[in-house]
Amino acid sequence: MIMATRWGICSAGKISHDFTVALRTLPHDDHQIVAVAARNLQHAQEFAKNHNIPRAYGSYDELAKDSDIDVVYVGTIHSHHLSTGKLFLTSHKNVLIEKPLAMNLREVLELTNTAKENDVFLMEAIWTRFFPVSVEVGRLLGQGEVGEVQMVRADLGAPLTHIPRLAQRELGGGALLDLGIYCLQFVFMVFNGERPESIQATGHCIDTGVDGTVVLVLKFSGYRMAVCTCSITMMLTNDAVITGTKGTIKVPNHMWCPTSLELNGEVKQYPLPEPSLPLNFIHSTGLRYEAEEVRQCMLKGLKESSGMPWSHSHLLAEVMDEARRQVGVTYTQDNIQ
């Protein structure tokens, strides 16, 4: 008999709420939530009560020591991913860490190396990769449905500077790390994790010193290009387009959590399950797909997912580091020797 995957939830914030609601849309025999931890016990207890979770902890250490947990979902802010991630990995827990995996390439490598040393599963929670729409994009590309891909364009932006974690430097704010990562992961999904030959980035910073808007142009081998635009200061089209020699694939809206796909002008819908509780973010029941991916990887004894391998996390961090260097955005984490 195949056992249920037993989850621990680290952080009782908004995304952890949505992830928990998403887990509830999957069969109870497959996914169970055993415990939640927050730095404040009262927050953890309220979260546990709302979500009917048996155990609540007032520290992440207690969660790391809970032997009934197979995998931990880390929903803390970016700047805490390295420390919380390492805590669970060194406690021999499998870990799913919210995107971005960490603040820069140095931190990302530290996390993947720690996972390797402790022989546990680790994945960056790029939920988009596991949506039915993304799976279908991969299938269409694999079948050569649009011929040779020549250009990829992805845009994601909304006026979000009023949200501290997106605007403050010390909280890892900025458009690239929060939104640009979705555009870049789409490009690397299409180009199978290939490293671009060149990266050109330009943009502007808001008064806190983080990037408000960034435009990235990536050049790949064989005259292939990609353009990514991300912004926390303005509403963009939030779509993605793949142009090939024989046609076009378009994710017409919500490119980070897509429910529709357009192939040469024909649109097909891929609806998500309904949530049992109100959500903080749009389409969050779609977090179920990455959770199921984690379960399947663990059942196979894999330490990384082929859908979001460590090499892609390394590449994302490397490109974002370079883009930030060109735009002039630094975090305190960049200066640690």
Describe the 3D structure:
- It is a single chain.
- It is built from ten helices and 14 strands.
- With 337 residues, the protein is α/β, with parallel strands linked by helices.
- Helix 4 links the parallel strand 4 and strand 5.
- Helix 4 packs parallel to helix 5.
- The radius of gyration is 19 Å and the shape is globular.
- The model has no long low-confidence stretch (mean pLDDT 98).
Question: Can I get a quick summary?
Answer:
The chain has ten helices and 14 strands. It is α/β, with parallel strands linked by helices and 337 residues long.
Please state the structural category: alpha/beta
Strand ordering within the main sheet: 8-9-10-7-11-12-13-14
Give the overall silhouette. Answer: globular
- The total strand number stands at 14
Order of helices and strands: EHEHEHEHEHEHEHHEEEEEEEHH
Which stretches are poorly predicted, pLDDT < 50 over at least 5 residues?
A: none
What is the count of helical runs?
Answer: 10
Strand content: 15-25%
Whole-number mean pLDDT: 98
Search tags:
337 residues, alpha/beta, 10 helices, globular
